[in-house]
Design a protein that fits this description.
124 residues; elongated; 43% helix; 4 helices; mainly alpha
């Protein structure tokens, strides 16, 4: 039997041969590992504070685009489905975006005049 593989498949256990040949043909596991590495980079960015965008709303999660489209083509799941987004965020918590409100509160935490007494009680 003539093969294009530069090593002898006889050295690999039979239980792994089929999986190895499938991986060499499709590269699915390699793509999955690369997508996980890209997702780790995206997860670091998700830890920063994000604000809602007028007209679009707030960002809930950020996914690796290549992995998302591969999953959409393979399983037919759509990112517009709220149930899918909830499931994906529950399964992959690193995708959740640190979202903060859009309102700015003024007056809290500001320093007031140090010698100003607002209330003084006398006993006498």
């Amino acid at each position: 039997m003539q093969t294009d593989i530069p090593f002898d498949l006889g050295t690999i256990p039979e239980s792994h041969q089929r999986a190895l040949l499938r991986e060499l043909r499709t590269g699915e596991m390699m793509d999955r590992v690369k997508a996980e590495a890209r997702q780790r980079i995206i997860a670091k960015d998700n830890q920063q504070e994000h604000r809602a965008v007028n007209g679009l709303g707030r960002c809930v999660a950020t996914f690796d685009a290549e992995g998302y489209f591969m999953n959409a083509a393979k399983n037919g799941q759509d990112g517009r489905d709220p149930d899918y987004i909830r499931w994906a965020v529950k399964r992959h918590p690193e995708c959740r975006v640190n979202n903060v409100g859009t309102k700015v509160q003024a007056g809290y935490g500001t320093k007031q005049e140090p010698n100003r007494v607002k209330f003084h009680k006398n006993y006498g």
